[in-house]
Prior knowledge:
Largest sheet: 4 strands, parallel
Shape: globular
Strand order of the largest sheet: 1-4-3-2
Strand content: 5-15%
Structural class: alpha/beta
Distance between the termini: 32 Å
Helix content: 40-55%
Number of strands: 4
Order of helices and strands: HEHEHEHHEH
Amino acid sequence: AQAIFGLRSTFALHLQEHLICPMSFWDVPGCKAGVVTGDGAWNLLKFAKENKFAIPAFNCTTSSTVNAVLEAGRELNRPIMIQFSEGGSAFFSGKALPNDKGVLQNSILGAVAGANYVRSVAAAYGIPVLVHSDHCAKKLLPWFDGM
């Protein structure tokens, strides 16, 4: 519990130092507590750009890291972005599972499980959340396509 609290505090400090929101994001069309998608997500990103603030993205590998990011966002009442990378996604479902080169079945499973987890819990934290797949090199396209 101490490690998770420290992780949450680190995320909160990072958000506090680097995120300044001069206007309310709650008035953005489609913005809501929980996972924001489609036009709502696009509107939120445009609003952030127009108002010169960042929506920080954090690569998450476990439900604990997802929770820490959500808790920090809630603490600061700020939108956040949760990312899943190909390598990190394999940790979400468990590194002991096969993850064959060119197939990346465990990375696909972990990314989908992670995104479903975020969708299940995000609204309870009362902040807008964007879910993002981290950058994807050509060799990782099977992972991206599999999601």
